[in-house]
DNA sequence: ATGTTTGTTCCGAT
DNA sequence: CATCGGAACAAACA
């Protein structure tokens, strides 16, 4: 049982030999042996529930990928973490890849799950989210509607692409102050948000021109072919040239004819 | 070369 | 003290 002198001895040796060494990869050997019980989602986190009340959480951020691969398949681009798995007598891998390194992976215990959930506002797909609650969380964030929609602690699950399309579909200017929104508009925004998100799920997500997003099998999504205003030139409703500007430092597309700022 | 990017967090300003 | 907004994180691409 190492006490201070033993720990000190090791720390000094490690410091002498390893300071300035670069960690190229990390391998976790065997006997982790936890089973993946179920995979779910909390906001934009992918949650692997493991045995013994342990959870493995991945956040893909902008460029993360999780790929199901055969173990002998050649390396993928930008591999960061490889899990080797056994199921029904066969082995395979789950590969977490990310070019920009904005993605995250962490292991947490069950009691931290509630803390994770508490960071987020109501999930946009939750049946329990009423228009009244939706409106009240938006209004509580005293800013413009686009900024509020993108704040995951206000309402969780809407990203920049879908916020643009949602505001276009709801004929709402992105700079509309949340406190000027009425319940009828909140209803419209909520219904349209659910419709857009569900449609994009049916299309298995959006893959932009950088080809970064792929599903767990490496296949592209198709929802980019159904964008309403994001990355579009002309309004699909009236033909007006779509405006592009940075709002809260995020690329924002809107139709100046259909989405008039009124307040 | 510079500007852009699907997300989130942190820090300074208000 | 609470809240907001922008910079930063890092890499690839046009």
UniProtKB/TrEMBL annotation:
Pfam families the record matches: Fapy_DNA_glyco, H2TH, zf-FPG_IleRS
Necessary cofactors: Zn(2+)
Q: Which domain of life is it from?
A: Bacteria
Q: Name one GO biological process term.
A: base-excision repair
Domain Formamidopyrimidine-DNA glycosylase catalytic residue range list: 2-103
Q: What catalytic reaction does the record list?
A: 2'-deoxyribonucleotide-(2'-deoxyribose 5'-phosphate)-2'-deoxyribonucleotide-DNA = a 3'-end 2'-deoxyribonucleotide-(2,3-dehydro-2,3-deoxyribose 5'-phosphate)-DNA + a 5'-end 5'-phospho-2'-deoxyribonucleoside-DNA + H(+); Hydrolysis of DNA containing ring-opened 7-methylguanine residues, releasing 2,6-diamino-4-hydroxy-5-(N-methyl)formamidopyrimidine
Asked if the Swiss-Prot or TrEMBL record annotates the protein with the keyword Zinc, the reply is yes
CDD domains named among the record's database cross-references: EcFpg-like_N
Keyword terms, alphabetized: DNA damage, DNA repair, DNA-binding, Glycosidase, Hydrolase, Lyase, Metal-binding, Multifunctional enzyme, Zinc, Zinc-finger
The entry lists its GO molecular-function terms as: 8-oxo-7,8-dihydroguanine DNA N-glycosylase activity; class I DNA-(apurinic or apyrimidinic site) endonuclease activity; damaged DNA binding; zinc ion binding
Q: Does the keyword Ion transport apply?
A: no
Looking at the record, the residues that make up the FPG-type domain are 228-260
The signal peptide stretch is none
Family that this chain belongs to: Belongs to the FPG family.
Task: Report quaternary structure and partners.
Answer: Monomer.
Q: What is this protein called?
A: Uncharacterized protein
Q: What organism does the record attribute this protein to?
A: candidate division WWE3 bacterium RIFCSPLOWO2_12_FULL_36_10
Q: What is the lineage of its organism?
A: Bacteria, Katanobacteria
């Amino acid at each position: 049982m190492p006490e201070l002198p033993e720990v000190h001895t090791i720390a000094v040796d490690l410091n002498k030999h390893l300071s300035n060494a670069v960690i190229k990869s990390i391998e976790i050997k065997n006997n982790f042996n936890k089973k993946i019980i179920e995979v779910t989602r909390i906001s934009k986190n992918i949650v692997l529930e493991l045995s013994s009340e342990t959870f493995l959480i991945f956040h893909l951020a902008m460029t993360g990928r999780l790929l199901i691969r055969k173990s002998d398949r050649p390396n993928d681009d930008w591999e960061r973490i490889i899990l080797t798995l056994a199921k029904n007598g066969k082995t395979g891998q789950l590969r977490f890849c990310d070019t920009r390194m904005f993605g995250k992976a962490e292991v947490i215990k069950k009691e931290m799950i509630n803390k994770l959930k508490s960071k987020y506002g109501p999930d946009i797909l939750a049946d329990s989210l009423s228009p009244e609650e939706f409106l009240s969380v938006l209004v509580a964030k005293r800013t413009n509607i686009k900024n509020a929609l993108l704040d995951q602690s206000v309402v969780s699950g809407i990203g920049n692409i879908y916020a643009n399309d949602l505001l276009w579909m709801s004929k709402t200017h992105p700079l509309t102050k949340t406190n000027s929104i009425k319940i009828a508009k909140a209803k419209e925004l909520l219904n349209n948000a659910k419709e857009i998100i569900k449609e994009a799920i049916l299309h298995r997500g959006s893959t932009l021109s950088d080809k970064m997003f792929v599903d767990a099998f490496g296949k592209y999504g198709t929802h980019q072919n159904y964008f309403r205003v994001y990355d579009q030139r002309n309004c699909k409703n009236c033909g007006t040239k779509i405006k592009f500007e940075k709002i809260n430092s995020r690329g924002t597309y809107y139709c100046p004819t259909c989405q008039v700022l009124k307040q």
